[in-house]
């Protein structure tokens, strides 16, 4: 029995990223949008016991990971969609994805992601094979802890979840700002 995704639609996350790019005076091309959404789905699943950020199916397209429904909907222009608000933890994740990976070029993201096991294994089965969320968790969840490296997105690997998720800033009882992360127990291999 699955757990419902955090957002009602992949469009909610896509429009959030598009609007965030506009706020930063940047154009977010469709290929890069799909790469960022793919990473958002992966890291959300890692941080939340395999649960999905959005009801989206990513496939191993010859051009890189892509969500076919969004691809068709955005084929000619920005579609008119009735969007739903994204819960705060979803906004925090999308903001973290944008800040961590948004500066990378589309080509860099595509080349790196195409060499990562979830995409490569699915594509080896056949082009346009579905990339399973469990494969995303297995690959992106095994990244080394921050103290063991700088955590760059490369063809060989990806940053650890703690290097991707920005801490939330909250206030202590004295009013002092403190950074907080969602609690994630370590697995036996992490110790």
From TrEMBL:
Region of interest: Disordered: 169-191
Superkingdom of the organism of origin: Bacteria
Protein name (record): DUF4065 domain-containing protein
Source species: Roseospira marina
């Amino acid at each position: 029995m699955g757990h419902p995704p955090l957002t009602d639609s992949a469009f909610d996350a896509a429009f959030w990223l598009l609007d965030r790019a506009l706020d930063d005076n940047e154009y977010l091309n469709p290929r890069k949008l799909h790469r960022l959404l793919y990473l958002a789905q992966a890291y959300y699943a890692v941080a939340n016991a395999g649960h999905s950020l959005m009801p989206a199916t990513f496939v191993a397209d010859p051009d890189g990971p892509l969500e076919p429904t969004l691809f068709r909907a955005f084929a000619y222009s920005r579609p008119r969609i009735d969007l739903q608000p994204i819960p705060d933890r979803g906004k925090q994740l999308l903001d973290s994805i944008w800040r961590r990976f948004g500066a990378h070029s589309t080509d860099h993201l595509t080349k790196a992601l195409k060499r990562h096991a979830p995409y490569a294994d699915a594509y080896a089965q056949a082009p346009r094979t579905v990339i399973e969320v469990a494969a995303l968790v297995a690959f992106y969840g095994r990244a080394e802890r921050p103290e063991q490296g700088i955590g760059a997105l490369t063809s060989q690997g990806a940053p650890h979840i703690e290097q991707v998720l920005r801490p939330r800033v909250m206030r202590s009882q004295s009013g002092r700002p403190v950074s907080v992360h969602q609690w994630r127990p370590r697995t036996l291999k992490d110790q």
